[in-house]
Amino acid sequence: MARVIYVQPDGSSTTCAADGRSLMKVAVENLVPGIIGECGGDLSCATCHVFVDEAWFGKLKPRSDDEESLLDVTSEEPTETSRLSCQVTLTDDLDGIVVHVPSTQR
Ligand code: FES
């Protein structure tokens, strides 16, 4: 069981337990503000954008070409550590991962 910490723009955070689901699904199920997941993870909405903490970004599988393309239409300018959270599956080796929620994704 991995834990994920979602950090809001005001510095407040929510810690959730996860088991093989995506960062987006866990956030939506736990009503984490700022992660909408409108398309349900079909890689067509870009409302699940997060900034992965730098210490964790390198542990993730690389973005697909489709994810790269969709990062162009996020509500907040993407950075080098941006991911669409529906494309990141939480596994035990990501226990403690920290992601930052964009302020404009409401
Ligand atoms: S939930 Fe729609 S792109 Fe991630």
UniProtKB/TrEMBL annotation:
Q: Where is this region: Disordered?
A: 64-84
What segments bear the compositional bias annotation Acidic residues? 65-79
Protein known as: 2Fe-2S ferredoxin-type domain-containing protein
Does the keyword rRNA-binding feature in the UniProt annotation? no
The GO biological-process annotations, alphabetized, read as: P450-containing electron transport chain
GO molecular function annotations of the record = 2 iron, 2 sulfur cluster binding; electron transfer activity; metal ion binding
Among SUPFAM superfamilies, the record links this protein to: 2Fe-2S ferredoxin-like (SSF54292)
UniProt keyword annotation of DNA-binding present: no
2Fe-2S ferredoxin-type domain span: 2-105
Against InterPro entries, the record matches this protein to: 2Fe-2S_ferredoxin-like_sf, 2Fe-2S_ferredoxin-type, Adrenodoxin-like, Beta-grasp_dom_sf
Keywords noted in UniProt: 2Fe-2S, Iron, Iron-sulfur, Metal-binding
